[in-house]
Specification:
Helix 2 (about 35-50) packs across helix 11 (about 280-290), helix 4 (about 85-90) crosses helix 5 (about 100-105) and helix 11 (about 280-290) runs parallel beside helix 14 (about 330-335). With about 350 residues, this protein is α/β, with parallel strands linked by helices. The protein has helices at about 5-20, 35-50, 65-70, 85-90, 100-105, 150-165, 180-185, 200-205, 220-225, 225-230, 280-290, 295, 315, 330-335; strands spanning about 25-30, 55-60, 75-80, 110-125, 140-145, 170-175, 190-195, 215, 235-245, 255, 260-275. It is built from 14 helices and 11 strands.
Length: about 350
């Protein structure tokens, strides 16, 4: 065999070995046009670009199930609103059937790579519905999320905080999976919608084909009141406000606010892994994220640049406190090598 052929064979073998060495990981996330959906898809691109891993993404999932799948080692990565690991750690809410002891064990298997704001919960309705705001919810039918998960829990809590109403007695709630969300918004099944939003929100934009809409801010006195202060103390919930002018909507959408500021509860979470993921993989995934925040993550959708990717301040990440999760040690190393400071309580 000639030297040229030997060299060529050696190069091919090296390339094959390199390809085999790249990890194959699985990930679950929400609908692909949402912040958690885009975040996981962006991670798969960043990981491939940096030669870290081939991530096989399944989107359109209910994150309640995805979090449990990561905790049980069935899936490598998932998007996770922080309220879900909190519920899991206590075996309550959507994890009541798991029980407190097993739930605490499973929650202990979870670790964070990086955090972001998943959404802001809010009320909106078609102008033709004649709903003037939160005071108009009573007696109406409200689409408030999928049948099971953090969005539904948050919507019910927000309605109670803003109006004092309970589902069933004060209003009728309907739950439909995310894949049918836009159809449900458009088909007249509900009078109004209390759902997670980004700014601008793809579901709102898509539904405008059926008519103009109004998005209603929380009232300032409710937002600053004691009841909402307690809501903001729940893991995965932070106070959020934004100038109406910065929300990114054009014709067809009106923002109803008393002072040109939109207010509501922000839902924060993370892309998580099983705590048993090896140090080097977790570090490389996090480093790939950090290196591509601008080039991949922010470029994916108009709302991604204001979704707090790359933030480490606990005032917006909601790490520490009652949140049971901490950063994976490999993620800690990647953040610190990139020059970021993480609070000790989150390590």
């Amino acid at each position: 065999m000639s030297r040229t052929m030997i060299a060529g064979l050696a190069t091919a073998l090296c390339m094959a070995a390199s390809a085999q060495a790249q990890s194959i990981l699985t990930a679950e996330t929400a609908a692909p046009n949402t912040t958690p959906g885009i975040s996981i898809i962006a991670l798969s691109e960043a990981a491939a670009k940096e030669g870290v891993a081939d991530i096989q993404v399944t989107s359109g999932q209910t994150l309640t199930n995805s979090v449990q799948n990561v905790a049980e080692g069935k899936t490598d990565i998932a998007a996770a609103p922080f309220i879900l690991p909190f519920f899991l750690s206590r075996g309550v809410g959507p994890y009541a059937s798991v029980g407190a002891e097993k739930g605490a064990e499973l929650a202990g298997n979870l670790a964070v790579l990086y955090t972001y704001r998943i959404s802001v919960q809010g009320l909106y309705a078609y102008d033709s519905s004649n709903i003037a705001g939160w005071s108009g919810v009573e007696g109406k039918t409200i689409y408030n999320g999928p049948p099971r998960g953090a969005a539904l829990s948050n919507a019910r809590l927000l309605i109670k905080t803003s109006t004092g109403l309970e589902e069933g007695s004060g209003y009728t709630g309907i739950q439909v999976n995310w894949g049918q969300a836009v159809k449900t918004i458009q088909d007249g099944s509900a009078d109004a919608f209390v759902l997670p939003m980004s700014f601008p929100d793809p579901r709102v934009s898509a539904a405008l084909a059926s008519g103009n809409m109004t998005i209603f801010s929380m009232a300032k006195d409710v937002f600053e009141g004691d009841a909402f202060q307690k809501v903001a103390g729940i893991p995965g919930t932070v106070r959020f406000s934004m100038p109406v002018a910065d929300m990114g909507y054009g014709d067809g959408v009106t923002i109803a606010s008393e002072d040109e500021t939109f207010r509501g509860p922000g839902t924060v979470g993370a892309d998580i892994v099983n705590a048993s993921m090896d140090f080097d993989t977790a570090k490389a995934l996090t480093a790939a994220f950090i290196a591509n925040i601008e080039g991949i993550y922010h470029a994916k959708a108009p709302f991604m640049s204001v979704s707090w990717h790359g933030e480490t301040d606990i005032a917006v990440t909601d790490m520490c406190g009652p949140n049971p999760l901490k950063y994976h040690p490999g993620a800690v190393a990647a953040w610190e090598e990139a020059g970021y400071a993480l609070p000790d309580c989150a390590k």
